Acyl-CoA desaturase
Amino acid sequence: MATVLTTVEPSERAPGGEASEFTPLLRIVRRSGLLRRRRGHYVVSIAVNLLALAAVWAAVVAVGGGGSWWVLALALPAAVLSARSGFVGHDAGHQQIAASRRTNRVIALFHGNLLLGMGAGWWTDKHNRHHANPNHVGKDPDVEVGALVWTRAQAVERQGFARFLTKHQARLFFPMLLLEGLALKVASFQDLRRLDRRGRLVEGSLLTAHVIGYAALLLTALPLPQAVAFAALHHALFGLHLGCAFAPNHKGMEMPEEGARWGHLRRQVLTSRNVRGNPVVDFLLGGLNYQIEHHLFPSMPRPHLRRARPLVRAHCARVGVPYTETGLLDSYAQALGHMHAVGAPLR
């Protein structure tokens, strides 16, 4: 069966005495009704996003039919709306949208596999492990050695071209994100081998349908040069947008050492960074700018995260747990500063 994100309440799995730090906050949040689902919100937001996507692709057909290169301008709204689909899939994976796991699974498969070519099974397995142990080397796949590295110990092991990447990874970070849209598709197909037979059939069929449908639409609507250019630009902007949404969340924050016994509150708050929000930031970052609240309450519906923020911040002040929040540009500066410092031994 496909992996689903854990939705057991954190207090049920927080070890030892530290559970008392989180339990009062959980009670406050529950009494405030912030864990209740917002089905109406998601019905409207999903419908609006799908209609907007349909309008953009209709415009691609209308503008591109004559071979105009102006069609490339539509890659930007297509990328933004694709990221919105990704945020919906993320929320469905966390069981935020519907009461039924099956319904959430269908929503995740539709928005991830079919609309984006990004496997729900691959994403939820990876994201599950990240939420369980954020920023913990050896447990969180987001800080494993890859194109980028996150600790000096990882950096000094790099050789060849990988060493060059690490040496300059802070400067190369945003350009590398332009490849992320394609990388997500490749990783999703590669992950099919991990799934059971039924999972491979369902997810693989939807991923294949996405690739065929996407290629057929572009090649039917546009001349070949414009079709290739549009696909490249769409994926580049999509990867950049998603990367910019996720980059501020944990990079440069605390990284637990092996053997650290942090409970749920400290494990999630000390490793996460909030980005101060406004309607535009909330929209572009998909609510993930309230990363602390999201990590403390993964099943909390996205529109409630902003309302939970003052409750969480006040509770952290009461128990003496640092609560990190900054502006959008400063969050990128902190993340890039960490990546630059990690590569310092190679310079």
